[in-house]
Design brief:
7-stranded parallel β-sheet; alpha/beta; 7 strands; Rossmann fold; binds acetoacetyl-coenzyme A
Length: 241
């Protein structure tokens, strides 16, 4: 049996592509999800990957949920912090609730998931933590002060933890996807998407979820053991660091 991987937000979008890619690479995969029961059921029926429901924004729910996964499958060796939401608004219209919801899920969610799993990875002297940040955490995006702040925070989190995990055989890396053709991106107003987003992508198209998933499987592999604290951009040359 392969290593155990847990993917948050793992039944839709980049998360679903990642769960499937890891399964195809031989991992035993659990997919967490927070809300969409119908999609999760369909995902499990189609892929055979079990789905577990809890919100990554809730620390206690993460502790309980991770315990369920580990009781069913074994200790989590690869954690993909992918779950994320948007609450886009120009800052002068952004509400405290829109700010909090995005920070709680996209930034605190990475803490809430990694913190309970970290001691086991340290004890076993192996771990892979892969945080899905965003191009908008690197460059900032008008209409996303909340999201850009959270995703930039994920990069700082990645770099600090990479140093702490190094001696314990744990690598911690981030991937910054650009605009990928998921429900989240397709929810942007069509005119805004065509005129302000796709026009800014030099390759002239949205990315595919599988193009991000392949970065995850590489970082999860034994071949990537010397790569830690790094950020891989997959953005069609939209933003070059
Ligand atoms: N830079 C500067 N100003 C901008 C701007 C930009 N990029 N975009 C909009 N504005 C200005 C507009 O010109 C307008 O100014 P005026 O009022 O002076 O005319 C003002 O901001 C309001 O713009 P909108 O009419 O678009 O405002 P709205 O309230 O209808 O919509 C919005 C605001 C929802 C944020 C919308 O602009 C939008 O959806 N923008 C795209 C945001 C985006 O890229 N989200 C990414 C989602 S996908 C994702 O997050 C995944 C990932 O990791 C990449």
């Amino acid at each position: 049996m392969g290593r155990i991987a847990l993917v948050t937000g793992g039944t839709r979008g980049i998360g679903a592509a990642t769960s499937i890619a890891l399964k195809n690479a031989g991992y035993t995969v659990a997919a967490n999800y927070a809300g969409n029961d119908e999609t999760a059921k369909k995902f499990t029926a189609e892929t055979g990957i079990p789905a577990y429901k809890w919100s990554v924004a809730d620390y206690d729910a993460c502790v309980t949920g991770i315990a369920r996964v580990e009781a069913d499958l074994g200790p989590v060796e690869v954690l993909v912090n992918n779950a994320g939401i948007t609450r886009d608004a120009m800052f002068h219209r952004m509400t405290p609730q829109q700010w909090r919801e995005v920070i709680d899920t996209n930034l605190s969610g990475a803490f809430n998931m990694t913190h309970p799993i970290w001691p086991g990875m340290r004890a076993r002297k192996f771990g892979r933590v892969i945080n899905i940040s965003s191009i908008n955490g690197q460059k900032g995006q008008a209409g996303q002060a909340n999201y850009s702040a959270a995703k930039a925070g994920d990069l700082g989190f990645t770099k600090a933890l990479a140093q702490e995990g190094a001696r314990a055989g744990i690598t911690v890396n981030a991937i910054c996807p650009g605009y990928i053709g998921t429900e989240m991106v397709r929810a942007i107003d069509e005119k805004v998407l065509n005129e302000r987003v796709i026009s800014q992508i030099p390759v002239g198209r949205l990315g595919e979820p599988e193009e991000v998933a392949r970065c995850v499987t590489f970082l999860a592999s034994d071949d990537a053991g010397f790569i830690s604290g790094s950020t891989i951009s997959a953005n069609g040359a939209q933003f070059v660091v």
